[in-house]
Specification:
Elements: H1 15-18, H2 21-37, H3 43-50, H4 54-63, H5 73-89
Helix pairs in contact: 2-3
Length: 90
């Protein structure tokens, strides 16, 4: 099931431009990436909604400074310590 989003723009914007496929694609991309940034959709769901693969999504995320891993510095330190323990045991 799909949802439709209606956006209101001032009348002076050219209607032709608002119906342009590339413009609409960029608008959808902006909304999905903002939802991703806010953690309201997963990376997998964002890629699915944008009809792109995960690698292309990572490129978009980098372009718009959206972190691919959302961890606090404390969580990151913990993960690093765990990884160091694993590699020391090998």
């Amino acid at each position: 099931m799909s949802k439709q989003v209606v956006l209101d723009f001032p009348a002076e914007l050219p209607e032709k431009g608002l119906k342009d496929k590339e413009t609409l694609k960029k608008g959808k991309e902006a909304i999905v990436l903002e939802l991703l940034r806010k953690g309201e959709v997963s990376q997998g769901k964002a890629a699915e909604l944008l009809e792109i693969d995960r690698w292309t999504l990572f490129d978009l995320m980098a372009k718009y400074n959206i972190p691919s891993v959302d961890m606090s510095s404390e969580e990151l330190k913990k993960e690093l310590q765990q990884a160091q323990k694993v590699f020391k045991e090998e």
